[in-house]
Amino acid sequence: MTMTAVLLGVLAVTMAVAVWRMSAGPTDADRVVAVDLAFVVFVAAVALLAVRLDAPAVLILVLAATLLGFLTTVAVAHLLERWSS
């Protein structure tokens, strides 16, 4: 078993925990954090597969997706703050 296979397994378990938190989260903020975690895990899995398959062009897409994910999280946090007050 290679290191990438082990890491993909760890990412799969982390994704399962994030999906569970999305469904069980008592507040909207918990759900937003879980969605953000799931997105980060997905991006990490894509990056790991890009390294494993020796496809460096995919890493540019990973960088763009990470930036988009950060901006989305900031926007949703701003909306949640407005709705709660």
From TrEMBL:
GO terms for cellular component: plasma membrane. Coiled coil: none annotated. InterPro entries: MrpF/PhaF-like (IPR007208). Pfam families: MrpF_PhaF. Its main location: membrane. The keyword tRNA-binding does not apply. The keyword Membrane applies. It is found in: Cell membrane. Keywords: Cell membrane, Membrane, Transmembrane, Transmembrane helix, Transport. GO terms for molecular function: sodium:proton antiporter activity. The chain crosses the membrane at residues 32-51, 58-80. It is a multi-pass membrane protein. Belongs to the CPA3 antiporters (TC 2.A.63) subunit F family. PANTHER family: NA(+)/H(+) ANTIPORTER SUBUNIT F1, NA(+)_H(+) ANTIPORTER SUBUNIT F. This is Multicomponent Na+:H+ antiporter subunit F. It comes from Streptomyces radiopugnans.
